Amino acid sequence: MKTSNTSTPSLYPPLDSIEARLFSPSDSLLYRWVHARDQVPPEIASELDNHPLAGEYRRILLSDVESDAIPTDAPPVIVPAWLMERIDQSLAVKQARYAPGPTPGRILAMNALPRPDGKPERDLNTPLAILLDQEVQPGVWYGWAVAPDPDYASEWDVLLQRPDDEPFDPSAGVIQTWNPVYCYLPAGHEWPVLAELRPERLAGVRALALAFAVGTASADAPSASPGRVWVRWEGVGEAGEPITTGTPLGDDKDSRHAYQALYHRAAEAVREPARVAMMPQPTLAERLIQHLFDLAQSAGRLLQPAPVLAHAMGSEATEAIHLVLEGGLRLAIEEFSDQEDSGLELELRAEAGHWVVERYALEHLQERLELHPDEPSQRIYLDARTTWHLRVSRTDVDPPWHLDLAMPSLDRDP
Fold this sequence. Notes:
Layout: H1 15-23, H2 27-35, H3 42-49, H4 52-62, H5 81-95, E1 106-110, E2 128-137, E3 140-147, E4 157-159, E5 174-184, E6 193-196, H6 199-214, E7 230-232, E8 243-245, H7 256-278, H8 284-298, E9 303-305, E10 321-325, E11 329-337, E12 342-350, E13 355-361, E14 364-371, E15 377-383, E16 388-394, E17 401-407
Antiparallel strand pairs: 1-2, 1-6, 2-3, 3-5, 4-5, 7-8, 9-10, 10-11, 11-12, 12-15, 13-14, 13-16, 16-17
Helix pairs in contact: 1-7
């Protein structure tokens, strides 16, 4: 880490290099954009069309390079000692043995960001590193972003130390307790391990994160000095181990403010799939209703919510959701579930006219119901595991009309 007595020292790497590292399109995405555009989501392809660096990359990929333009007598490359040291650190991590699956204290390289809603993954030029703290619900973990830039460390960044924290990859040497994240780690996926903290070190990180969250400043904090480190003893867990951090942030000229803004923005790529995973999932009835609205709209038929009718014999109202289809067919939709089965119960009531409702499964007619003034109400049961469709017909008008309500298996993920 560099040191300097000036108020605005030159920190490494420069902010523009960090921004490019975090937000430039990845090489794999650019290659697909040039050579297999149909594999790139249209909205991302459109962004790349207007990206100046992407345009230059495309020009290079499509240009013809003569074989004699590549020098064959270039001198051997001498790898500097500091780079060899970093390579050795990375190799030590790769050679270490880690138990499968996520676990508290482990730092993962988020080189893939699967989404629970099936949308395309976010492209990352450089994997974001995350220190895992605890699982808050199945597949969703809480933790902190981790970075490779010790020069930009603040008083709320924990710098891993050699040999105490080895092995750790150099790309995961700075834990940003000011940048907490939720991340989505579904079963069946694996991410590269960059480090695994000892329990004592994780306790220190948690203590510092808590101090940041409640706004507890250290009484003996040094003045802002970008690029310098601070060895701290207070509030670092039961073991009382010291932790190494940066110094407090300075005024607006302190480039660490801009650095933190970049990493807050970058961590959104990890937070977004977790937010989707933590959203309440729609019920079977809600999924069916949304599907019915979409089908009715595409067929040009009005489907709208309706007030709940009083039940016969003074029985209490259920939690059924009521809709009315154009022409006077009321649908009351309610879920049922027991140890053996689950699905939906539809109560169909003809408020006007004559109706025929047919239920098909695998293109075979399973049930046919008629609704008319003498028998206005019928019930139908829909198994959540079966792919089916309903044909609803108004038969007493000229010309008769029908609406096909196809519905996939409801027990699949939306």
